[in-house]
Amino acid sequence: MRGDGSRILRGANLGKPRRLAKNQIYFYSKSRSWDKQLAGLQSTPPAAAVLPEGISWSSIPKSVAIVRVSDVNQAIWRLANWNWRQVRPQVAAVTGSAGKSTTTSMVTSILKRSRRVVHTQGNLNTFTYLPSYLLRLSPGDEFLMLEMGMKSFNNIARQCRVVRPEVGAVTNVGEAHAGQLGGVHRVVKAKQELIDGLRPGATLYLNADCLRSKQLSTRRFRGSVYTFGIRNPADIQGSNIQYSTNGVSFDVMTEGKRGRFFIPTWGDHNVLNALAAIGIARALGIGFHQIRDGLAKVKLPRMRLQRIRGSHGRTLINDAWNANPSAMKAGLSVLRYLSSKRPGIAVLGDMMELGGYTRAGHREVGRFAARMNLHQLITYGQNAREIGRTALAAGMDPHRVHHFSNRGALLRHLLSTPAGSVIYFKASRKQKFEKIVNSLAHGSR
Hints:
By secondary structure, the protein is α/β, with parallel strands linked by helices. The chain is about 35% helix and about 20% strand. It has 3 domains: about 10-70, no CATH class; about 80-295, Mur-like, catalytic domain (UDP-N-acetylmuramoyl-L-alanine:D-glutamate ligase), CATH 3.40.1190; about 305-440, Protein-Tyrosine Phosphatase, Chain A, CATH 3.90.190.20. It has helices at about 35-45, 70-85, 100-110, 130-135, 155-165, 180, 185-195, 270-285, 290-295, 325-340, 360-370, 385-395, 405-415, 435-440, and strands spanning about 10-15, 25, 50, 65-70, 90-95, 115-120, 145, 165-170, 205, 225-230, 235-245, 250-255, 255-265, 305-310, 315-320, 345-350, 375-380, 400-405, 420-425. The strands form 3 sheets. It has a 9-stranded mixed beta sheet, sandwiched between helices. Helix 3 (about 100-110) packs across helix 8. Keywords: ATP-binding, Cell cycle, Cell division, Cell shape, Cell wall biogenesis/degradation, Ligase, Nucleotide-binding, Peptidoglycan synthesis. It is found in: Cytoplasm.
């Protein structure tokens, strides 16, 4: 070891040398070259560095305290757990096949109106990233708002074993990750881990409008269960939804009170996300005035119904962060409203990770698209071709259905679409539709 212990640490850096700050503690990463890590330590010396045995520290500036350990990952977790115990914030967790990030952003926006909160960043929502949030906590932080994602079983369960949330919500259960897990029924099992991982006496919110959510079991759950919904009766009831150019207004009936709320995005699915956020905030002791203000001012994650101004008066809706059949149909419903007086064009790509449901899922979207009165349905990708074929079989005008396998040809076609069109983009992450959106926004070929 090296150092005198007088430096005050403010934050941890888990193997990201380009993001170093002078008062951080840096943890060595075995997945990065030591030369790159050393360069970062030399250019921006942190307060301390945790290194494994066998790594030389002679070239690290003498101002950096050195701690040598046999297992860096174990050291990360030990410090994270220690820091967590010092602060002990209230913990809320959200999972679901869609809407996790949006709901988390909504709750965070509400809490930040008057309180201090540490929350999930971007889509860094698996067990691997949990220590970084625990290490970010400092005295005075009241809430830890976590989005819990998973690509395998036990991911959510492991997160819950560490933080034992006192409030939880499952936004919905859909087809996302069905291919990886072996079917939608196994997605239900994975989401069940949140319910089973909440602490005794916790508060749980479930989607009354989601059929698959009814397969989640609360038999062993020792706490309070509430529902949120629009179509079906629920404890947090949304109704009277009205669209505008800037978002959606809706009524909420809960706890014997009725109020009007606004969110700066569109879609019944996002109203459901807002209802879940309202429930979580109420369970954390937040008043309705602050909830209303937080929802109205929420900054949503990029590529979730992100509106972009295109050339020749076109409006581009970038909803291409990821895709599954339920989310794609929800987006098409939004497009139908936004294009009620303008040409509406849907650009749909492959939906990945559906496994044995791949063909049926794309056909489901195709049948739905045929009913949306689209000016054009454009597909891109091998699996997405099935969307167009099914839409044609369902009676859609062949002159309005197009398929492209070349990105350049697709872009040229989009640049020829009518001025003033509303163009909606949705595909799985791997297809990187944002590149098409960016090119179209700048009018380039």
